Amino acid sequence: MRRYGLGVIFLGLALALSGAYGMWAGWDYIQLERGWSLFIGGATAVSGGVVTMALGRAIGVLGRIADKVPAMQASATADLVEDAPAPPQQQTVAATTPPKPPVEVDRYMAAGSVYVMFSDGSVEVQTNGRARRYSSLAALRAETGVGGD
Fold this sequence. Notes:
The chain is of the alpha+beta class and 149 residues long. 61% of the residues lie in helices and 15% in strands. It contains 4 helices and 4 strands; from the N terminus they run H-H-H-E-E-E-E-H. It has a 4-stranded antiparallel beta sheet. Helix 1 runs antiparallel to helix 2.
């Protein structure tokens, strides 16, 4: 078991203890400038030591969390591998759904006939109230004998 942040905690403890000693040593000379300086410096060191110990504790907690992350990722990957047979079921569902009807893409009029182009490539020709559907523009040209070149 790794001990993350233990060194930082000990350094913070040393800083806090040295600050407490500075406050204790400066208390007798508090009337003098030197005493005030020792006391204020010691108080600053104590507070800095406490903050450093808290940072060491945070490093320890985050280090233990980081140790657990690969295990969580491996279990999540194992769950995904167990769910692998799902795509064939989706393929059967996709095969049973009816295809969507083609969408009208373009419509134009030429020589008294209305030509309607659809998204699947088919063409519908409407002439004299009749409508005739061709599978492609090439099929329309082949039947009518009109070349599009």
